[in-house]
Amino acid sequence: MLAAQIIAVVIFVAMFLLIVSEKVPRHFTTLGCGLLMLIVVFGICMRSSEAVMETLNLKSFADPNFWILSEGAEEESSGINWATIIFIFGMMVMVEGMAKAGFFRWLCLGIAKLVKYKTSSIFLTFMLMSFVLAMFIDSITVILFLAAVTIELSQLLKFSPVPMIIAEIFCANLGGSATMCGDPPNIIIGTALNYTFADFVVNTGLIAVIALVFVVVYFYLVFRKEITKDTTKGMKIAYPDPKEAITSKKYFAISCVIFAVAVIMLVTHAQTGLTVATIGIIVTAMTLITSWRGAWKLLKKVDYETLLFFLGLFVVVGGLEQTGVLEIIAGFIAKVSGDNVMLMIAIVLWISAVASAFVDNIPFAATMIPIIKALSTTMGVDLSVLSWTLAMGTDIGGSATPIGASANVVGIAAAAKSGHMIGWGKYCKYAAPATIIVIGISMAIIYVRYF
Questions:
Q1: Does residue 259 form part of some domain?
Q2: What would the pLDDT profile of 384-419 be if each residue is shown by its tens digit?
Q3: Cα 104 to Cα 99, 100, 110, 217, distances in angstroms
Q4: What share of the chain is helix, strand, coil (3-state, %, to 5)?
Q5: Measuring CA to CA, which residue among 279, 296, 283 is closest to residue 94?
Q6: 51, 148, 221, 316: which could join 322 in a potential S-S bond, CB 3.0 to 4.6 Å?
Q7: Contact between residue 169 and residue 141 where contact means Cβ atoms under 8 Å apart
C-alpha cells in the first residue's frame, strides 16, 4: 500500500503542475493522470478491481436515489460524481439557449438604459448584476457576456472598462459562493455531502451577501476617480436599443421560462426529492425540445472539455481516497490544530483560499472533501461548518490572482482583445485586498455563528 500511496501522490502532484503550467490542455492532463491511476495504482500496485469500480461509480445510475432522493437517504459520493457532471451539462445547454436568444446582452443593455448610461451607476449595477446572475449561472458565462457589453459601453461612453471588469469578475466569484449551483466547487460539495440549495443560501449565501456590501464600497472607493469622470459632456451619443439584442421574441420568452423552471426546481429540490442530476436532465430536455431545429447546434457549443476535465479529476482524487492518502492529510491537519476547532477552521479556510489563488479551485475542492469528512469524524467537528468553510475558501480565494478562477481568465482575455491589458500587478493590486477582506469577514461570521 505504501508504493500505491507514493505513486498516487506523484500522479496527483504531476496533474496539478501540468494544470498550472497550461502547456497541456487540462482535460488531457486529468484524463491521462486518471488513466494512470486506474492502471498503475489500482491495477498493478493494489490489484483491486473493487477500487476501480468504486472510483468509476457506474452503479450510481442504477440507484433510484441518484434520480429522486427518498427521505433519509444519501446520494453516492465516492469516485466520479456523475450528478455534478450531468447537472453542469444541463446548465451549459440551458445557458447556450439563453445566449442564442440574446437574453444576456438584452439584460445588460436594459440595465444600462435604466440608469441613464451614467458610468458610476453602471459600475454599481453591473457589480450587483454579476453577483446575482452568478448565483444561478456559471460565472464564466456571466463574465463572458458582462465583459463584452462593458467594453461596448466603454467605447460608447469613453471610459476605461478595466476597473469595471475587475469588479465584475470579483462579484461573479462572490455570487457563485452564495448558492449550490453558483460555482463548480459548491456543486461538488453539495452533491458529495448531500446539501440542498437552501443549505447553501442560509450559510454561504448569508456570508456572501454581507461581504458584498463591503466589496461594493471597496471597489467604489478605489476606482471612484476613474468611474466618476464625465467624459461625454457635450457629445451626442446614439445609445443602443436593448430590444435589438433579442434575436427571437418567441425563443427569448421560452428561454426565460426554462430558466425560471430551473431556479424553482433548484430552490425546492429538498422538498420534491429531485436530485441535481434529474434537474440537469429536465433542463436539457426542455431546452433541446423547444429548440428542436437548433438542438444540434446547441449541443455542439457545450464545453465538453470541461466535462472531461471533471471525469479525469474525480478518478485522480478517487485514487488518493482509495489509497488512504487523504486520511493521512486529515490526520496531519488534526494534529497541527490539536483540540482547537477554531484553529482548524482557520487552517482549512486560509489554506483553501491561498491554494485556490494559484491552482484551479475545482480539483482542490474535490480533494478536500474527503479530508474534511475525515476531520469531522476524528475530531467530532460539525461537517457542515467545515463544508461552508471550504466553500468560501475555494470560491473566494480564486479571485485573488488572474489565474485563480476560470472567470478571471475569461474577463482578462476579453479586455485584452479590446486593447486593454490587465497584468498581474494591476489585477492583484485591487483583487487581492478584496479577497483578504472577504476571507476575513467569512472567518469572523463562521466564528460568531457556529461557535
A1: no
A2: 999 999 999 999 998 999 878 878 988 998 898 889
A3: 6, 9, 10, 25
A4: 80, 0, 20
A5: 283
A6: 51
A7: no
